[in-house]
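Run log // design_07
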């Protein structure tokens, strides 16, 4: 029995590092949520922040951009989503999305392309002012991270 117990402890000691390495890194867990002050972001400006190692665009949209986004018929969209589904009620001027093209993960250029949105120069994907795919090989809209407004000037991502 003693030999069996020592063997079991030995196997557990050998296997534990393999199991433990599958846990998320502590640096990622520490960034599961992040708060950002959006007060300094002027209308028409985009700021890129980092959340969980990913770049995130925070765009303070102009009334013209919001109006353009709301006017797009869903039938013209490859991945249909209304502007209201991509923003929070009462905060329609703020667009918050992960800054990776849904084609191959490149970072699109802001306020570029045919739709006053984002243009991915790597393969030509174009997104509108709501981050919806309009042209190119990307299959989906720019991804929205989970976020909520803590106040009119503070947003929590994650």
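design_07 sequence
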């Amino acid at each position: 029995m003693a030999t069996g117990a020592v063997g079991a402890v030995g196997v557990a000691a050998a296997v534990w590092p393999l199991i433990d390495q599958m846990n998320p890194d502590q640096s990622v867990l520490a960034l599961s949520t992040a708060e950002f002050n959006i007060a300094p972001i002027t209308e028409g400006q985009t700021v890129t922040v980092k959340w969980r190692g990913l770049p995130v665009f925070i765009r303070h949209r102009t009334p013209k951009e919001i109006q353009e986004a709301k006017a797009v018929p869903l039938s013209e969209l490859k991945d249909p989503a209304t502007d209201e589904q991509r923003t929070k009620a009462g905060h329609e001027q703020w667009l918050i999305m992960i800054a990776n093209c849904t084609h191959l993960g490149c970072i699109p250029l802001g306020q570029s392309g045919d739709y006053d949105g984002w243009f991915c120069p790597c393969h030509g994907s174009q997104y509108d002012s709501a981050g919806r795919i309009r042209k190119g090989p990307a299959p989906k809209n720019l991804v929205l991270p989970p976020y909520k407004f803590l106040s009119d000037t503070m947003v929590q991502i994650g």
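The chain is about 20% helix and 25% strand.
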